[in-house]
């Protein structure tokens, strides 16, 4: 059974690039343009769960940190891997992400192979 990933980014082209990579790896992909849209997608997902979440940090309406904090309050997402994919690389921001519940941090631009290696580490087959 295919695993489902949720991609959260306000950039359509970034969602398409990440989605292309994940679909090539066999994932079913859901997308949200900000944290609030992503929470709505999660609410409509079977069981309110996905196998993996990849989110941007800076987005309108609801940013990535707020989204992660909200997602972690959902029983089915408590242990779901959540990766931050952002242009920000400062240690302070990474610490904020970890405190919010992020599993890992990848700095844009990304290489598809790098993204898939990180996914293999946080989401074993």
TrEMBL record:
Pfam family, one: Response_reg
GO biological process, alphabetically ordered: phosphorelay signal transduction system
InterPro entries (UniProt xref): Bact_response_regulator, CheY-like_superfamily, Sig_transdc_resp-reg_receiver
Keyword set includes Phosphoprotein: yes
Taxonomy, superkingdom: Bacteria
Keyword set, alphabetical order: Phosphoprotein
PANTHER family xrefs: CHEMOTAXIS TWO-COMPONENT RESPONSE REGULATOR, STRESS RESPONSE REGULATOR PROTEIN 1
Official protein name in the record: Response regulator
Organism: Capsulimonas corticalis
Gene behind the chain: cheY34H-1
């Amino acid at each position: 059974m295919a695993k489902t990933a949720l991609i959260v980014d306000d950039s359509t082209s970034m969602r398409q690039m990440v989605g292309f990579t994940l679909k090539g790896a066999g994932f079913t992909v859901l997308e949200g343009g900000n944290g609030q849209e992503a929470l709505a997608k999660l609410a409509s997902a079977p069981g309110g769960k996905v196998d993996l979440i990849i989110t941007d940090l800076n987005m309108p309406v609801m940013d990535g940190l707020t989204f992660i904090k909200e997602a972690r309050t959902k029983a089915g997402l408590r242990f779901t891997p959540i990766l931050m994919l952002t242009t920000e690389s400062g240690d302070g921001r990474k610490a904020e992400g970890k405190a919010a519940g992020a599993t890992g941090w990848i700095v844009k631009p990304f290489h598809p192979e790098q993204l898939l290696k990180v996914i293999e580490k946080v989401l074993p087959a």
